[in-house]
Each structure stands twice: as structure tokens, then as C-alpha cells.
Amino acid sequence: MEKRSFEEDLSAIRQEKTSLQQKREKANKESMKQRFLQQADSLKGETEQLRVKVKSKRHNFRETVEKNKQKYKEEIQKCNSEISQLRFQFER
Fold this sequence. Notes:
The chain has one helix and no strands. The chain has one helix spanning 2-91. The longest helix is centred in the middle third of the chain and has 90 residues, at 2-91.
């Protein structure tokens, strides 16, 4: 009788151990899933920040290009005007 009770207790302990191992594995999987979801959210945030930063830099670059274009256009006009004046002076 005592042997049977011991075997039943041992069997119950083994079942409990198996159950606890399964619960631990499930908890680990859930924990990993949560970490991956957090990392994904973080990456989405970083991606959005980079997108905004690139858009801003592109806008600033275009503004700089446009300002330089206008500046050089004015310089070319000034040079053309000076050339015209010099030609006029030499023709006299």
C-alpha cells in the first residue's frame, strides 16, 4: 500500500513538473513575443523619425539649391551687364 502511495505521489510530482515546465515555456514564449513586439514598435518609431528627418533635410537642401541658383543667376546678370558696359566703353 505504501509503495503504491509513493508511486502515486511520484507520478503526481512528475505530472506537476511537466505542467510547470509547459507553463514556463509558454511564459517564456509570451515574454519573447512581447519583447519582439516592443522592438517592432521601437523600430517603427525610429523609422518614422528618420523619415521626418530625411524629409526635412531634403526640404532644406532644395531651399539651399534654390537660393544658390538665384544668387548665381544674379551674379551672371551682373557679369553680363559689366561685359556690356566694357564693350560699350571700348567701342567709343
